[in-house]
């Protein structure tokens, strides 16, 4: 057929961990355009679908389906069971109009669907180009249903990306009379193929498809070419496909892939239903509330320590304030993100401020909340490690540690804050130098700003640093018990009791980190529940509980916050700062020793 009679529409369906994504666009133009074709000409319409799982395709003429629904890759679904799969495949369907006349002209619709989402479709009008020689009622010769016709492959898999361990079904459906026989061949070398027969790994299905069972011992990322040949007495037709094996680390799925469509202004935007939009709005409101709580439970600690000189002189409070500042900035980022997204939603879908218009990763990086998150979240994780190291030093060398000045804390905090600039600059450069493709929504989650290779490092850094801080605190508590048991002099009682108080308070904070970060993160990572929103919210609970621990365990912070909020800035710190009651009997302490 001529180029004028071809029209190629492309759908995309990606069923990922966070939902289903479907989109379509034309390879040649923004939308499928109508076609004017000469009477009697052969027309071939080709529709391509990209999806996970593989999409099936069928056609409608003037609103009526021309064929029955195609069966999908259910055999692979049964074989794989609960095994995690990638399952992204490209399928192609071809509709041939051998002779265009008044009866066959009209409105043609390509419908793509899979088991993960509702069907989507796109259409074109194929009309007859009027010429002087055409009769108004001219029609093509009627062909008998029993007329012998050479085979034509009408639906097939073009390519599949899958794990080596997973079972895959490659589609190959053909029409023709007599009914075509379908054979499959596997590429062994360049242009050399080996005929496939039923064996332990391959199964030729009755509808023409080929099922390929996975191999657990095959962990290499590679591609294998296959050829499908349909044959009958009047000829043959063949199509080639490729199966790409990818290890988990080789292929990075993006949870941000979404249903998209092309707009008349040239932009691409995410498509969401009214229900999905309402869910987004509710989640953003919840995150704004969480952001407010994080902000008002952390910044007061920072203000109290910075405002009162007596507290600034104590290294423990400076380190606590540094962690609270990072957590507070993260909370403020939640608030800014929620408010910014809600404002974007209220502005509608305008070109300048559309929540769901796709943008580049670099532009996402430059959004205020992403910049705040990229610094605050890893910095807070580093500060947790710093606190564990500080406590380890305090319990192992208590008397020497006692005489450390505030300068020690300033240097420690400065190191923790500045060390994070190195990976941040690296991530910024990577994002900036990446090809500027509009591929992520404008509401910009953390992860949308990173390149696919950088984001796993960011996530793993947060998790590993947090887990390390909790694990490190176990020997801290053991060493604390040993150190206190060795202390038997009254003159060092204040020093040891102060160390004990700070270490136990920060130990409680570390326990909250385990309960409210590591546990929910494990649930989220392992996807133990269908709805994980509650566990995502729990990831920030530990930063909220810190203020209550500090107020309960540190009288200085308690008095400072009260003075700050009541505007009574003159505090008799001599009566507030930590002291020990020498009349109280402490285990292991005796004036006679």
TrEMBL record:
<feature type="domain" description="Ig-like">
    <location>
        <begin position="40"/>
        <end position="127"/>
    </location>
</feature>
<protein>
    <submittedName>
        <fullName>Uncharacterized protein</fullName>
    </submittedName>
</protein>
<feature type="domain" description="G-protein coupled receptors family 1 profile">
    <location>
        <begin position="297"/>
        <end position="526"/>
    </location>
</feature>
<feature type="transmembrane region" description="Helical">
    <location>
        <begin position="365"/>
        <end position="387"/>
    </location>
</feature>
<dbReference type="InterPro" id="IPR003598">
    <property type="entry name" value="Ig_sub2"/>
</dbReference>
<dbReference type="GO" id="GO:0016020">
    <property type="term" value="C:membrane"/>
</dbReference>
<dbReference type="InterPro" id="IPR036179">
    <property type="entry name" value="Ig-like_dom_sf"/>
</dbReference>
<keyword id="KW-1015">Disulfide bond</keyword>
<keyword id="KW-0677">Repeat</keyword>
<feature type="transmembrane region" description="Helical">
    <location>
        <begin position="534"/>
        <end position="552"/>
    </location>
</feature>
<dbReference type="GO" id="GO:0004930">
    <property type="term" value="F:G protein-coupled receptor activity"/>
</dbReference>
<keyword id="KW-1133">Transmembrane helix</keyword>
<dbReference type="InterPro" id="IPR013783">
    <property type="entry name" value="Ig-like_fold"/>
</dbReference>
<keyword id="KW-0472">Membrane</keyword>
<dbReference type="Pfam" id="PF13927">
    <property type="entry name" value="Ig_3"/>
</dbReference>
<dbReference type="InterPro" id="IPR007110">
    <property type="entry name" value="Ig-like_dom"/>
</dbReference>
<feature type="transmembrane region" description="Helical">
    <location>
        <begin position="317"/>
        <end position="345"/>
    </location>
</feature>
<feature type="transmembrane region" description="Helical">
    <location>
        <begin position="461"/>
        <end position="484"/>
    </location>
</feature>
<dbReference type="InterPro" id="IPR017452">
    <property type="entry name" value="GPCR_Rhodpsn_7TM"/>
</dbReference>
<dbReference type="GO" id="GO:0098609">
    <property type="term" value="P:cell-cell adhesion"/>
</dbReference>
<feature type="domain" description="Ig-like">
    <location>
        <begin position="151"/>
        <end position="244"/>
    </location>
</feature>
<feature type="transmembrane region" description="Helical">
    <location>
        <begin position="504"/>
        <end position="528"/>
    </location>
</feature>
<feature type="transmembrane region" description="Helical">
    <location>
        <begin position="408"/>
        <end position="429"/>
    </location>
</feature>
<feature type="transmembrane region" description="Helical">
    <location>
        <begin position="284"/>
        <end position="308"/>
    </location>
</feature>
<keyword id="KW-0812">Transmembrane</keyword>
<dbReference type="InterPro" id="IPR000276">
    <property type="entry name" value="GPCR_Rhodpsn"/>
</dbReference>
């Amino acid at each position: 057929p001529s180029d004028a009679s071809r029209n190629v529409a492309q759908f995309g369906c990606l069923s990922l961990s966070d939902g289903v994504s479907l989109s379509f666009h034309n390879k040649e133009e923004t939308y499928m355009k109508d076609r004017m074709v000469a009477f009697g000409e052969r027309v071939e319409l080709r529709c391509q679908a990209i999806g996970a799982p593989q999409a099936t395709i069928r056609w409608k003429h003037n609103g009526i389906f021309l064929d029955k629904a195609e069966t999908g890759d259910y055999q692979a679904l049964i074989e794989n069971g609960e095994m995690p799969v990638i399952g992204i495949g490209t399928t192609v369907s071809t509709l041939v109009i051998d002779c265009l006349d008044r009866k066959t002209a009209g409105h043609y619709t390509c419908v793509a669907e899979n088991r993960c989402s509702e069907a989507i479709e796109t259409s074109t009008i194929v009309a007859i180009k009027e010429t002087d020689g055409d009769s108004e009622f001219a029609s093509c010769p009627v062909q008998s249903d029993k007329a012998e016709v050479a085979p034509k492959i009408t639906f097939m898999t073009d390519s599949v990306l899958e794990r080596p361990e997973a079972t895959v079904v490659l589609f190959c459906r053909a029409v023709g009379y007599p009914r075509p026989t379908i054979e499959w061949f596997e590429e062994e070398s360049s242009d050399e193929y080996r005929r496939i027969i039923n064996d332990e790994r391959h199964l030729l299905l009755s509808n023409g498809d080929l099922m390929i069972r996975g191999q657990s011992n095959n962990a290499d990322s590679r591609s294998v070419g296959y050829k499908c040949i349909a044959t009958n007495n009047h000829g043959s037709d063949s199509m080639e496909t490729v199966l790409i094996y990818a290890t988990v680390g080789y292929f990075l799925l993006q949870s941000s892939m979404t249903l998209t469509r092309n707009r008349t202004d040239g932009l691409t935007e995410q498509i969401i239903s009214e229900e999905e939009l309402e869910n987004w709005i509710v989640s953003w409101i919840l995150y704004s509330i969480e952001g407010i709580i994080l902000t008002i439970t952390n910044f007061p600690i920072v203000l109290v320590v910075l405002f009162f000189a007596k507290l600034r002189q104590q290294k423990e409070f400076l380190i606590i304030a540094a962690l609270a500042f990072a957590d507070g900035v993260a909370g403020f980022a939640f608030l800014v993100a929620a408010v910014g997204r809600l404002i974007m939603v209220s502005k509608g879908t305008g070109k300048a401020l559309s929540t769901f218009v796709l943008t580049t990763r670099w532009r996402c990086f430059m959004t205020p909340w992403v910049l705040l998150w990229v610094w605050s979240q890893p910095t807070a994780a580093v500060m947790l490690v710093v606190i564990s190291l500080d406590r380890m030093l305090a319990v192992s060398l208590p008397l020497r540690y006692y005489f450390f000045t505030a300068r020690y804390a300033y240097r420690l905090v400065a190191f923790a804050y500045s060390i994070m600039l190195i990976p941040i600059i690296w991530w910024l450069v990577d994002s900036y130098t990446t090809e500027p493709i509009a591929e992520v929504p404008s509401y910009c989650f953390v992860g949308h700003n990173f390149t696919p290779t950088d984001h796993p490092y960011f996530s793993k850094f947060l998790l590993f640093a947090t887990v390390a801080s909790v694990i490190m605190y176990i020997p801290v508590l053991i060493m604390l018990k040993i150190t206190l048991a060795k202390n038997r002099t009254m003159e060092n009682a204040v020093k040891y009791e102060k160390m004990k108080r700070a270490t136990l308070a920060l130990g409680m904070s570390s326990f909250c980190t385990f309960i409210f970060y590591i546990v929910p993160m494990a649930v989220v990572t392992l996807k133990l529940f269908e709805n994980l929103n509650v566990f995502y919210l729990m990831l920030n609970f530990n930063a909220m509980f810190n203020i209550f621990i500090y107020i309960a365990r540190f009288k200085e912070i308690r008095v400072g916050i009260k003075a700050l909020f009541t505007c009574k800035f003159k505090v008799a710190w001599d009566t507030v700062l930590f002291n020990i009651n020498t009349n109280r009997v402490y285990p292991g302490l005796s004036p006679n020793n």
